[in-house]
Task: inverse folding
């Protein structure tokens, strides 16, 4: 990179301009990525953090996908799942989104009904009939502490613990006993307790398909179950689409820039070729230049996105971790280099003979 | 370390037919001498230079550069040969806008896989030879036309070429500067022991060279005049 370095410095204005575009797109990609992860977290963290690998839903009617709002399973089902060979644990989990009140403060919460002592709740010993365990966000919103009384769907429950953060469908989670859940969800009409899904821990030996057929359920992995949360697929889908477009735009803009740049210096390229520069030498030079531009732009843009994300704090759901920050940055660089490589390719077709002409 | 063209024929596609740009050209340029190539416009001077520079392969005939027969060589080998054995002085200086005068020369070492820093000494030497020691750190836009042309010449000599090909080096310069440039080429050719071909329109140059060949419609004429005693 002898000539390329000097071109970078000599044509500073152009490269700074292009670098600024890379920075801005990277900031946007970083913010959208953080937001995507943050919103996904607010939508699904209570499910992704479940100590279970599969969830059994009531089998949906033909042609429909599994859904937390529609699914309902009875006590026989989870008892039967417990007996399926290869299934280590099968525990009922009831989910209902409802309102909670404490001292005049109201919040939408998702109540997770679990059997007393169940590992599905963060502090199993504290989940009893008449008691509620709050996630930290729920405690914040209700301004409630251990020992306070919270009214959930009209029932007074005593707060026995405030445990880890968990969120479902953009609402904070509270954990109740499965019996209380029956009241909250106004089920319990006909024949015994019901839950929304059965949370399973399985070994590879378990034949889930056969058990599904026998028990009238549809079992999906925990990660696949996210699409059963009403808004998740569409919300996540549109944000990912946005991200995809940003990646494509940046690759195209970089490609266009380097196309123009390469055409502009095709005279210099012809001279270098006539002087004996190999095509490989010229390609390395040009590609190195693209990598420097993209690397600097992307690092700067990511730094700005991280700073902005940190400044936003808890005002918006925004997740800043290595995957949300470094992942998109690397994709930006990779796609940008690909875009540049396509435009730089035309170096190979520059004819050194043109350097001989009297006018370039 | 000389240049030999033997029975070189070159044609360009010309509509359905082919235009004969070089017709059975044989030329021998010994090391340390200058051959001036003159002829009317369109007679094939640049074509001959391009063939000697290995930028075009002739339809038939042989181009031997410093003892190496280039016939049938791969593109990569030709590029390498150009880099190591051939010096090109273009009609326009063709300097790279982002490089300083000394870097214009150092890049030649870099093209050849050597550290530009290691070539600094040689570059300074050549800049001195062309009288530009004081301008080493100037970029092309900060130099006069004559100064650029002198760097063009110094650059061609950077990798100690066996063959120096010079295409109308003075056409952009006034009489006085043109004469100085020609002087420079003569001196450096003798000092480096290069086999030099000089395309020129300027008859006044012909007295300073060792051999003059005239080209008409792609055919060489027997030497018409020689400046050598
Ligand atoms: N790339 C090309 N394709 C087709 N014909 C060409 C090409 N290059 C040159 N010619 C033709 O070949 C002939 C010789 O051209 P050349 O450029 O070698 O002439 P020249 O002696 O250098 O002329 P000038 O003094 O004007 O530079 C001309 O008739 C020209 O039109
Ligand atoms: Mg010509």
Result:
């Amino acid at each position: 990179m002898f000539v390329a370095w000097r071109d970078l410095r000599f044509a500073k204005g152009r490269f700074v301009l292009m670098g600024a575009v890379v920075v801005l797109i990277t900031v946007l990609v970083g913010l959208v990525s953080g937001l995507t992860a943050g919103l996904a977290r607010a939508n699904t963290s209570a499910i992704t953090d479940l100590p279970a690998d599969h969830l059994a839903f009531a089998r949906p009617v033909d042609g429909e996908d599994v859904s937390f709002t529609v699914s309902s399973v009875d006590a026989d089902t989870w008892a039967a799942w417990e007996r399926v060979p290869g299934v280590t644990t099968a525990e009922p989990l009831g989910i209902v989104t409802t309102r909670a009140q404490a001292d005049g403060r109201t919040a939408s919460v998702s109540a997770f009904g679990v059997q007393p002592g169940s590992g599905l709740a963060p502090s199993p010993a504290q989940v009893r009939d008449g008691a509620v365990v709050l996630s930290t966000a729920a405690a914040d919103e209700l301004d409630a502490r251990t020992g306070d009384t919270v009214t959930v769907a009209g029932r007074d429950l005593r707060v026995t613990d405030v445990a880890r953060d968990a969120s479902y469908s953009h609402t904070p989670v509270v954990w109740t006993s499965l019996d209380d859940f029956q009241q909250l969800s106004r089920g319990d009409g006909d024949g015994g307790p019901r839950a929304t899904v059965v949370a399973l821990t399985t070994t590879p030996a378990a034949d889930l398909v056969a058990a599904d057929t026998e028990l009238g359920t549809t079992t999906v992995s925990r990660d696949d179950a996210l699409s059963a949360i009403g808004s998740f697929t569409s919300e996540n889908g549109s944000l990912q689409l946005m991200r995809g477009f940003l990646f494509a735009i940046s690759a195209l803009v970089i490609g266009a820039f380097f196309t123009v740049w390469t055409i502009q210096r095709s005279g210099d390229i012809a001279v270098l070729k006539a002087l004996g520069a190999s095509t490989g030498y010229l390609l390395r030079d040009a590609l190195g230049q693209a990598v420097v531009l993209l690397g600097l732009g992307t690092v700067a843009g990511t730094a700005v996105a991280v700073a902005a994300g940190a400044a936003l704090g808890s005002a918006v759901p925004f997740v800043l971790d290595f995957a949300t920050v470094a992942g998109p940055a690397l994709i930006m660089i990779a796609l940008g280099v690909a875009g540049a490589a396509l435009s730089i390719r035309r170096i190979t077709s520059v004819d050194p003979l043109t350097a001989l002409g009297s006018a370039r | 370390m000389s240049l030999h063209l033997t029975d070189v024929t070159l044609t360009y596609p010309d509509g359905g037919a082919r235009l004969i740009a070089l017709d059975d050209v044989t030329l021998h340029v010994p090391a340390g001498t200058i051959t001036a190539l003159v002829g009317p416009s369109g007679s094939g001077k640049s074509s001959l230079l391009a063939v000697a520079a290995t930028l075009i392969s002739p339809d038939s005939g042989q181009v031997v550069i410093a003892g190496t027969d280039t016939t049938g060589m791969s593109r990569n080998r030709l590029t390498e040969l150009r880099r190591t054995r051939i010096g090109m002085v273009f009609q326009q200086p063709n300097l790279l806008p982002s490089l300083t005068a000394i870097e214009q020369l150092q890049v030649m070492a870099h093209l050849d896989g050597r550290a530009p820093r290691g070539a600094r000494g040689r570059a300074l030497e050549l800049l001195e030879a062309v009288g530009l020691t004081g301008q080493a750190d100037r970029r092309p836009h900060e130099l006069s036309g004559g100064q650029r042309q002198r760097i063009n010449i110094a650059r061609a000599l950077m990798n100690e070429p066996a063959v120096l090909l010079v295409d109308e080096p003075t056409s952009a310069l006034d009489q006085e500067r043109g004469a100085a440039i020609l002087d420079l080429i003569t001196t450096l050719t003798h000092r480096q022991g290069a086999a030099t071909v000089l395309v020129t329109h300027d008859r006044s140059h012909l007295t300073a060279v060792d051999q003059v060949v005239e080209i008409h419609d792609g055919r060489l004429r027997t030497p018409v005049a020689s400046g050598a005693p």
The first strand of chain B starts at residue 3 and ends at 14.
